[in-house]
Every structure is written in C-alpha cells, then in structure tokens.
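tool_call: predict_structure(chain=1)
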Amino acid sequence: MGENNVNPKVMQYVMGHSDAQITMNVYNHIAEKSHVENEMSKMNLPETVPAVV
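tool_result:
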C-alpha cells in the first residue's frame, strides 16, 4: 500500500493499528533500490543511492 501512495491513515485503519506511526514502521519499508531511485528522480536528486552501513 505504501508503494501505491495509500494514505497512512487508511493503511492504519486497514491494518487495525491504533497509531499510523506503527503502520509506517512495520509495513512501509523500501523493497527495491529502483523505488528509491524513482522517488529521488522526482526530487531532482542524484540517481545513485548511497550505500547503507
């Protein structure tokens, strides 16, 4: 749902969480590097993703 821009409050309701932050912490993770690059291109940022340490 996060990758499809579903509103966090809607995700919270669907998942049954008391707080949208719980939903975001548990379910809204980055699945692929290409998703990061796509979003960064929208912000006119470099297309490379820094290494995670």
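agent: Helices lie at 8-15, 20-27, 33-42. Proceeding to next step.
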